[in-house]
Amino acid sequence: MKDDFLRPPRTVAEYAADGVRAIGVLSVIIAAIWSTPTDAGVLAFALPALMLPRALGLRGGADLAVGAIVLIAAVSNVFDLYRSLPGWDLVVHFLCTGVIAATGYVVLARLGIVPPQGSPAFRPRLPLVVCPLIGLAASALWEMVEWAGRTFITTEIFVTYEDTIGDMAMGGLGALVAGAVVAVVGLERDPRR
């Protein structure tokens, strides 16, 4: 993982993904100086998800997709797009949970819990089950974080029962679609390149 993280970018997509990571780090600094602690915290919360695809050695396109979607999700919160754009919340939960579930599959493969995509033991039906499980678990965890943030930190965080259920349903659907993608598209970069 360390070698993948420190490896210089080689493709346009890898440079773009590193650019998204740089924007993510800068956005935290900018929010910490000129915005609220809540905004800086939301953006900082996204940083591990921006860095993980690089450490895992995901292909440039997959790395870029994960980073861009996660950063858009965080920035949407800062600019209050979830309240001002009808349906935006559901679109972002679908996409963000999907890329998190796909990345989660790669993490589980690295831990030896599921077979990696290129191995003889890999079966395309496996990510169709595993990715939705990861996505629903991540959705539940996210909704608990939102609830705790509203309950203990600030009432600026929007939480209702209907919103929570809708977010989790769209997240589960996004994770199912991600499972279909993981079933047929290799996410990891060829280690020989």
TrEMBL record:
Keywords: Membrane, Transmembrane, Transmembrane helix. It comes from the Bacteria. The chain crosses the membrane at residues 64-85, 91-114, 126-145, 165-187. This is Uncharacterized protein. It comes from Microbacterium sufflavum.
